[in-house]
């Protein structure tokens, strides 16, 4: 997995205001049908992981696990983040190919 690539793309999506971060905000975007992809850090709590993945499954939103919260936060120029929802289909599609 090419870390630099997906991180810079996520940074770009962030600057384009096409993402939301944080568990509650991300879940609310999933519910509204706006989230196209959810990135979840591998070190998220079991509770958070279950809540987010269940929500993704019931709304048919793809999700990917990324190595850790530091990387996820760093990619969007913020503090450590556990959940990031991508709200743009184009960015989501490209991120999915980079994260496979």
Structure characteristics:
single chain, 100 residues, alpha+beta, four-stranded mixed beta sheet, 16% strand, YlxQ family RNA-binding protein, Ribosomal_eL8/eL30/eS12/Gad45, Ribosomal_eL30-like_sf
3D structure, described in words:
Strand 2 (37-41), helix 3 and strand 3 form a beta-alpha-beta unit. The protein is an alpha+beta fold and 100 residues long. The chain has helices at residues 3-15, 23-31, 46-58, 69-75, 89-98; strands at 19-21, 37-41, 63-66, 83-86. It is built from five helices and four strands; from the N terminus they run αβαβαβαβα. Helix content is 52%, strand content 16%. The model has no long low-confidence stretch (mean pLDDT 96). This is YlxQ family RNA-binding protein. Residues 5-95 form the Ribosomal protein eL8/eL30/eS12/Gadd45 domain.
Summarize the structure.
This protein has 100 residues and is α+β, with helices and mostly antiparallel strands. Helices cover 52% and strands 16% of the residues. Helix 3 (46-58) links the parallel strand 2 and strand 3.
């Amino acid at each position: 997995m090419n870390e630099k690539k997906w991180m810079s793309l996520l940074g770009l999506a962030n600057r384009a205001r096409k993402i939301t971060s944080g568990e509650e905000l991300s879940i609310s975007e999933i519910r509204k049908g706006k989230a196209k992809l959810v990135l979840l850090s591998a070190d998220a709590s079991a509770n958070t992981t279950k809540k987010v993945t269940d929500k993704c499954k019931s709304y048919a939103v793809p999700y990917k696990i990324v190595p850790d919260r530091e990387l996820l936060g760093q990619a969007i120029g913020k503090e450590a983040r556990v959940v990031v929802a991508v709200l743009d289909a184009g960015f989501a599609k490209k991120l999915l190919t980079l994260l496979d």
